């Protein structure tokens, strides 16, 4: 496996991105059973607690912006990791960084 300079911590960014995306995709939907923490009686009294929160559009836009920047951070961190670990030279680093940044679904 290549890299390792950052002890592969750059992959934690994927977990953060996934978590934010899940939050966005869950809005307004019924909560999963494992996300319910209270008694049946509680949810009968507070049925709104069984639905995932829906954020205002401006907040959702900031979540999406954060995802964009986190993806960029992941790309930069990964490429720098390979450079510092000796897997890429300086020219290869620049080439691969440019390639990764230009991928449609970075």
What's the gist of this structure?
The protein is mainly alpha-helical and 106 residues long. The protein is built from four helices and no strands. It has one domain.
Task: Report what the structure shows.
- The protein is 58% helix and 0% strand.
- It is an all-alpha fold.
- The chain has one domain (9-102).
- Helix 1 (12-26) packs antiparallel against helix 3 (57-84) and helix 3 packs antiparallel against helix 4 (90-102).
- It starts with 11 loop residues before the first helix and ends with a helix.
Which features would summarize this protein structure in a list?
single chain, 106 residues, mainly alpha, 0% strand
Provide the fold topology.
Layout: H1 12-26, H2 40-45, H3 57-84, H4 90-102
Overall residue-averaged pLDDT value: 94
Largest sheet: none
Summing up helix and strand content along with how strands pair, one would put the structural category as: mainly alpha
Q: Helix tally?
A: 4
Please give the domain count.
Answer: 1
Strand content: under 5%
The separation of the N and C termini measures 21 Å
Are there runs of 5+ residues with pLDDT below 50, and where? none
Total strands: 0
Rg calc? 20 Å
User: Overall 3D geometry?
Assistant: elongated
- Helix fraction, binned, reads 55-70%
Order of helices and strands: HHHH
């Amino acid at each position: 496996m290549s890299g390792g300079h950052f002890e592969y911590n750059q992959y934690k960014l994927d977990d953060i991105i996934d978590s934010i995306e899940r939050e966005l995709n869950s809005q307004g939907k019924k909560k999963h059973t494992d996300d319910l923490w209270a008694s049946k009686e509680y949810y009968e009294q507070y049925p709104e607690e069984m639905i995932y929160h829906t954020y205002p559009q401006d907040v959702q836009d900031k979540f999406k912006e954060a995802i964009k920047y986190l993806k960029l951070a992941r790309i930069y961190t990964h490429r720098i990791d390979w450079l510092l670990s000796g897997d890429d030279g300086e020219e290869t680093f620049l080439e691969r960084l440019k390639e990764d940044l230009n991928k449609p679904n970075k």
